[in-house]
Amino acid sequence: MSVRLRLAALGVAAATAAAGLALVTAPAAVALDNGLARTPQMGFNNWNATHCSGDFNETMVKGIADLFVSSGLKAAGYQYVNLDDCWALPARDAGGNLVPDPVRFPDGIKAVADYVHAKGLKFGLYSSAGTKTCNTAGFPGGLGHEKQDAALWASWGVDYLKYDNCNNQGVDAVQRYTAMRDALAATGRPILYSLCEWGQNQPWNWATSVGNSWRTTGDINDTYAKMLSIFKANIKLGQYAGPGHWNDPDMLEVGNGGMTDTEYRSHFSLWSIMASPLLIGSDIRKATPATMAILTNKDVIAVDQDPLGVQGTELSNANGLHVISKPLAGGDRAVALFNENGTPATISTTAAAVGLPKALGYQLNDLWSHKTTETAGKISATVPAHGTAMFRVHAGGAWWSNPPAVHTSADLPLPYPGAPALVQPGTTTTLTTTTTNDGVLPGLLGEVKLTGPAGWTVKATSPTFHPVLPAGRDVSTKWSVSTPADTPPGSYPLHVSTTYYPGKSTSDYDLTVSVAAPLTAGTTGLGDDPWLSADNGYGPVERNTSNGESKAGDGHPITLGGVTYAKGLGVNAPSTITYYPAGHCSAVTATVGLDDEKTGAGSVTFEIWADGNKVADTGLIKRGDPAQSLHADVTGAGLLRLIVTDGGDGNTNDHADWANAQITC
Ligand code: GLA
């Protein structure tokens, strides 16, 4: 019997559908009728910050509740303070009840819930739809104890349950999660029900009537690559989300330190335009002002919490440049322009493409700079590497009372699209700034400035002053930028600033350029050599081991066809590692294949690129194929890329090794 049929057989109280459903393109199933999560839930969960460490205790939870009130998080809409795994003891008591860990929670769970409630907040707890939770210590799960556990939680004042999927004994997921839904309902207490079965049984097809949200993927971690891959999976599921029943791409990592603030702004923007639950996953007692500014951005939160309750959809994603649009109550559209790549790019769409009605002018509210401009219809931004520009767009109104939407980009000549912007010490680089006016009205008295780091010489070689920035057109300025000979390797900002009238409006932008150390002379192992960047499907690229999929150092000895290699690179497709031979190297050699540690079907290709040219390609390598020797002539290459593709069949099981990879310089 299919999942859908089984759902019908459950005889869910379908007739009581919430009226809000009419607003969204929801599937036939009816939303869980507990009245909760009419907009995506907002709050905190300790897991991403603490896992099961000793930091997870009553003091922490109370401290977070205090901060919710004192730091403005509560005012910004965050409501739930949730405990994850490891709050209980490994054994139930003689009466079969769960017992709070007395070291972490000496006053019990009810006391903590009372504390949270006294702050005007709500309290959440965790369990698993299995015999034990996910932690290896094995805390008791809810399978077979649904009624007793739900009643206990309700007596403690629990308002939210996250229900995990570990140790489920192969019992049908719909049955397990429905049993807990019914047990929660039977308590008579409204308890938000968050399913966490990682998308394994396509919960979007059946959980609308079971839970208020369902995880769509495996666990997030604090890396840009993981955040990106979860975004790509979750964005496709928009049609299933709506008031009371949301796709959950997992909790926020904002503030945990593994991504830049630009990347965290993207994470927050993307989660919000996907109408995702916003559960803070960092220890905000230690948050930087930048972290707090991201988490309390009310304009972005308003997109997430928009009462229409529609998840954004992706209009295009050509070459990693994503355009996402979300209809809002009252007719506005939220638009996110997300640059997945490692180099800045201009991303554009139009008011018509995002579904706005025809108008002479539109108001463009930038949700990160909080500036409002007018546009004739183009929605464009110069977006930094891994960054996101986010707007609320309104058709008509007093658009003419705002300055025209002007943005300036800076372009260096690059050996291939997406190449890192490198400058060499002791040389002069030519670059071009281009200022574009997307408005209906002209900009006046436009002036472009480019400033570099102290000691760098920046000179305009064509006019920087443009009396008129005509509507719908662009103007350019050429610059020469000299990098001092003693500049050490690192990243350096070049700041581009445009001012224009009316209102002495500004448009600012940082182009980051890098100085890199070339690879050293001789034949060296690429597993030990410094790289410029390393992107990977799961977890980080590993040096001299296979890929372990989640954190640095979690791989195993590289093994291909029974042979173990001490050196090399372990990746998971899709992966790109970029090195800087700087024209001084001649050859790359490696033995490549799928690591023996995985047995399931998988396929990849290995490619070597010298600047914009592919100089070696294995073709498709499938599980069971012998390892291949690869040799590439890279003479004169400024940049070298080792690329592994997923072979066209997804990237599960794609542990790919560049065994004994060496370069001769
Ligand atoms: C699973 C869940 C995580 C977290 C841990 C706790 O991995 O997906 O979100 O709750 O269990 O052990």
Just give the CATH class of the largest domain: Alpha Beta
Largest sheet: 8 strands, parallel
Q: How many structural domains can be distinguished in the coordinates?
A: 4
Q: Determine the fraction of residues in helical runs and give it as a percent range.
A: 10-25%
The low-confidence runs, each spanning 5 or more residues with pLDDT under 50, are 1-28
CATH architecture of the largest domain: Alpha-Beta Barrel
The strands making up the biggest β-sheet line up spatially as 7-6-5-4-3-2-1-8
Mean model confidence by pLDDT = 94
Which structural class matches the secondary elements? alpha+beta
Compute the number of strand runs.
Answer: 38
Count of helical segments? 11
CATH homology superfamily name of the largest domain: Aldolase class I
Q: Compute the CA-based radius of gyration.
A: 27 Å
Q: Give the overall shape, derived from the CA principal axes.
A: globular
Model description:
This protein has 665 residues and is of the alpha+beta class. The chain has four domains: 40-311, Alpha-Beta Barrel (TIM Barrel), CATH 3.20.20; 314-402, Golgi alpha-mannosidase II (Immunoglobulin-like), CATH 2.60.40.1180; 408-516, Immunoglobulins (Immunoglobulin-like, Sandwich); 523-664, NPCBM/NEW2 domain (Jelly Rolls), CATH 2.60.120. 15% of the residues lie in helices and 32% in strands. It has eleven helices and 38 strands. The strands form eight sheets. An eight-stranded parallel beta sheet has the order 7-6-5-4-3-2-1-8. It has a six-stranded antiparallel beta sheet with strand order 9-10-11-16-13-14, covered by helices on one side. Strands 25, 27, 30, 32, 36 and 38 form a six-stranded antiparallel beta sheet that branches. The longest helix is centred in the first third of the chain and has 14 residues, at 173-186. The radius of gyration is 27 Å and the shape is globular. The protein starts with a helix and ends with a strand. Residues 1-28 have low confidence and may be disordered. Bound molecules: alpha-D-galactopyranose. Alpha-D-galactopyranose (GLA) binds at residues 47, 84-85, 133-135, 164, 196, 219. Residues 47, 84-85, 133-135, 164, 196, 219 line the site of alpha-D-galactopyranose (GLA).
